[in-house]
């Protein structure tokens, strides 16, 4: 795939302001109210040991309270016999995938970290090995997928629920006896990277953020720049629902990774691929350049698409964490 976005020097300087992203004046109030309401409904997380036949890790099926008190599933994976307190990685999944099987989530526990992998409500049927968390909230007319569910009202939009779940997953991790609540890092790729940025801007006391080729950044530029899905769900919706453009982008602005990044201070490791048509590099640089923390690094993959660094990011993440949140 050819290069299609801004030249590298312009990417490095690309920093759209709050007005260009459409930041809402009540963004902070909206999220403070949302999270307070969700926490008021939260109950103590429940977990059950899952026999996997593996000797190096202990796996648990976790259920915690997300948005609206709705049950959200997760896998907790610990180094075998660990009592803690352990540094912990909370991980979010890519778009369309579910939490899959416990035996798929072994990397971080084998590196000495506790690992909580959150299921994505209403997803899990596009790839991978399935999800276990329904989204019980209805919505108005929408295109297939998640991006336009409730798009005319930020209080009803799907991402309000999913990003709230991401923050409460951090709360759930802190409730685990093996977890050191002062050493929690959030991570994910694509949608998972976008959720990591949301958690970075909304959750308190994070020790690090690792957001690979993050989705959900600078919605307006993304839909104007790429023909790829999932951003094209928004275009598809607007092509049918003419006249909804202003309200749609006003809604999406509450969930934009650029706006969340302006409020995030934990150390950040992110990445961008210059041939990525799914999450265009300028949208990622917009979030990176807006990120309020000063300890931040972006890894650039000039020859890759949305796969980014793939498995090559893992050793970089381990080295980066070893300096900041050692196991």
TrEMBL record:
SUPFAM superfamilies: alpha/beta-Hydrolases
Domain named Acetyl xylan esterase: residues: 1-322
Domain of life from the UniProt record: Bacteria
Name of the featured protein: Acetylxylan esterase
InterPro entries in UniProt: AB_hydrolase_fold (IPR029058), AXE1_dom (IPR008391), CE7 (IPR039069)
Region feature Disordered, mapped onto this chain: 124-150
Lineage: Bacteria, Bacillati, Actinomycetota, Actinomycetes, Micrococcales
Organism, scientific name: Flavimobilis rhizosphaerae
A Pfam family annotated for this UniProt entry: AXE1
